[in-house]
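Q: What structure does this chain adopt?
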Amino acid sequence: MRTAASMFLFYFSITLAIASSALYHFVAKNTPANVNFSVSLLVTYSVAFLVTLVAFFFFPPQNGLMAGLKQLNWASIGLAAAIVGIEFGFLLTYRAGWNLEIAAVIVNVAASLILLPVAVFVFKDRISWVNIAGIFVCLLGLTLLNWKR
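A:
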């Protein structure tokens, strides 16, 4: 049975991810087209660094910074590369004229479908018949979103 704290974290984490994703797409779509996106991302990551630095003082590593750094692996570098790719990708996507309501759905559904074999074969996740039905609904949704574009 889950504790109240774990239930809070369970719902808070997904709510934060959803709200942040919605805010992300709203802001990315509103980034002026005449602004160099490298400059835009430089400012974005500078502010993100400052926010993370403030958060660091509220959530410091238990055994100190050096011990925390020693626990890292390639995933931190991979995550950085993925984040930059997402940022550049969506800024270019919106500048190319994609609609806000369609671009995010297509990217997220397509990425989820690409990750399906990874989930099954690498992480040993189990896929049920309900999940398979959901996958077909996603594929149908992608087809309908792109119908007569």
